[in-house]
């Protein structure tokens, strides 16, 4: 079981701080295709093939990393070696990925992209699973996950804010920008990673042979498919996540090509990210007071209303304000839902530990992160496909037909709204509330006491 002593504020911050540097370094991954094409002459078709196979491999390896991390944890009670090695190797692989030679090849791009994303998950999966083992207190877990997601957003904001500094020739993201990203990211990562490794406590596992034997008697397939709360959780993640992903895939096109507000897109997103960070700072307190399930329902409701409201925004003098409100609602709801989802999953991990007599935290979280990637791929395909089917052309200078505009609004608003509402209904069926989670923790503590006595 996790240590019973409450975490200090410094320990909680030390847990979350490395994510700021990691997601600062993560920022350029989304725009690498433009950098490699514009500045290094790589064909877009080549880049598309590389990213397709790299992302396919990336999704498949998530459960593998979770499985290996869990096996190591069951023997040692530690996640720190994965977190340390993953973060340092992510920094090194980012250096080669963001600063390629002038004559870069597709094989070079593929190799370092796969290495960087693999090392990112070697850090990220054990790190997001860690709070389930360093504290039993649901309130402290809520705080840890809220801090983690606040600093994830803050790290991303730091990267985009760095591009606006006056010593750059322009605000465009160039190879020189990525060079500075590596330098600044390293300065942020090393001290925060050291603080995390030094000050955040590890769990202590005893009777390792008994734990490992219990693990061997319980297959991974059984652990996943016999855990009904986990399957219900995944269904909710698929519905809510794919609905928001459809919206995300089209929001820039909606802003730029339909509302003609492309010049204000970056500012709208900076404001919405700041609003999301502010919401995360206080949302865990609401979860502690009302319970995680109710807080999750409110989070998804906020995002769902934002999805619906987006379809009501049309070209007008007040379109910028209305769009900003819609984006803030969706992003705040999505950010707080992500934090609450991690806390809910930590409760499901405790249920799985009680039922199967072995901790599979990283495996559960790795499947969760894999489904987030599937949601994004599925949502992007659905959104872009529907808008294209109705004939919406972002590059058209002759205006859009009524059918094309209807298809765009259907894809970005009405359809995601219906999908998210279905996810909201599924969340309402979650059974592991605060009272039942307390019972699970009590039984786990009783089992740990019996094991300690026998030992």
CATH superfamily of the largest domain: MFS general substrate transporter like domains
Radius of gyration: 22 Å
Helix content: over 70%
How does the helix and strand content classify structurally? mainly alpha
**What is the CA-CA span between the terminal residues?**
15 Å
| Quaternary form | single chain
CATH architectural arrangement of the largest domain: Up-down Bundle
Q: What is the domain tally?
A: 2
Unreliable stretches covering 5 or more consecutive residues: 206-217
Strand content: under 5%
Main pleated sheet: none
- Total of DSSP H or I helical runs spanning 4+ residues: 17
Number of strands: 0
Please tell me the overall pLDDT.
87
Q: Can you tell me the CATH class of the largest domain? A: Mainly Alpha
In short, what is this structure?
This protein has 455 residues and is an all-alpha fold. The protein is 80% helix and 0% strand. The protein has helices spanning 9-26, 32-40, 44-76, 80-98, 106-129, 131-134, 138-162, 175-199, 208-217, 220-225, 228-258, 265-290, 292-310, 319-356, 361-389, 402-427, 434-454.
Q: How is the secondary structure organized here?
A:
Elements: H1 9-26, H2 32-40, H3 44-76, H4 80-98, H5 106-129, H6 131-134, H7 138-162, H8 175-199, H9 208-217, H10 220-225, H11 228-258, H12 265-290, H13 292-310, H14 319-356, H15 361-389, H16 402-427, H17 434-454
Helix pairs in contact: 1-7, 1-8, 3-5, 3-9, 3-15, 4-5, 4-8, 5-15, 7-12, 7-14, 11-14, 11-15, 11-16, 12-13, 12-14, 13-14, 13-16, 14-17, 15-16
């Amino acid at each position: 079981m996790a240590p019973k002593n409450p975490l200090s504020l410094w320990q909680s911050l030390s847990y979350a701080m490395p994510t700021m540097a990691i997601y600062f370094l993560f920022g350029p991954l989304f725009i690498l295709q433009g950098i490699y094409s514009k500045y290094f002459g790589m064909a877009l078709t080549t880049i598309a093939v590389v990213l397709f196979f790299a992302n396919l491999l990336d999704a498949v390896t998530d459960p593998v990393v979770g499985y290996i991390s869990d096996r190591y944890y069951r023997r040692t009670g530690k996640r720190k070696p994965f977190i340390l090695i993953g973060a340092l190797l992510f920094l090194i692989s980012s250096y080669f990925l963001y600063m390629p030679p002038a004559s870069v090849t597709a094989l070079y791009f593929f190799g370092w992209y796969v290495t960087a994303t693999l090392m990112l998950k070697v850090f990220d999966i054990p790190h997001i699973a860690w709070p389930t083992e360093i504290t039993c207190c649901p309130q402290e877990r809520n705080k840890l996950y809220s801090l983690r997601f606040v600093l994830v957003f803050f790290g991303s904001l730091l990267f985009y804010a760095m591009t606006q500094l006056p010593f750059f020739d322009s605000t465009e993201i160039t190879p020189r920008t990525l060079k500075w990203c590596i330098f600044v990211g390293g300065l942020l990562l090393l001290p925060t990673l050291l603080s995390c490794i030094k000050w955040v406590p590890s769990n202590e596992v005893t009777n390792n042979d008994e734990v490992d034997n219990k693990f061997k008697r319980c297959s991974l397939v059984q652990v996943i498919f016999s855990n009904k709360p986990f399957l219900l959780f995944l269904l909710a993640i698929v519905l809510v996540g794919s609905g928001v992903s459809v919206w995300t895939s089209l929001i820039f096109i909606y802003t730029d090509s339909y509302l003609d507000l492309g010049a204000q897109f970056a500012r709208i997103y900076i404001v919405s990210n700041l609003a999301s960070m502010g919401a995360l700072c206080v949302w865990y307190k609401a979860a502690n007071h009302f319970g995680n399930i109710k807080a999750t329902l409110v989070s998804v409701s906020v995002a769902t209303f934002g999805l619906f409201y987006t379809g009501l925004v049309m070209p007008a003098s007040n379109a910028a304000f209305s769009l900003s409100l819609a984006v803030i609602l969706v992003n705040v709801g999505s950010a707080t839902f992500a934090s609450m989802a991690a806390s809910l999953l930590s409760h499901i991990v405790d249920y799985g530990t009680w039922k199967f007599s072995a901790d599979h935290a990283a495996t559960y979280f790795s499947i969760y992160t894999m489904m987030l990637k599937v949601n994004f791929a599925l949502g992007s395909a659905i959104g872009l496909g529907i808008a294209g089917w109705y004939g919406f052309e972002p590059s058209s200078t002759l205006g859009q037909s009524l059918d094309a505009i209807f298809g765009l609004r259907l894809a970005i608003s009405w359809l995601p709204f219906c999908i998210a509402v279905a996810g909201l209904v599924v969340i309402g069926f979650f059974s592991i509330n605060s009272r039942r989670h307390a019972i699970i923790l009590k039984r786990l503590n009783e089992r740990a006491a019996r094991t300690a006595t026998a030992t």
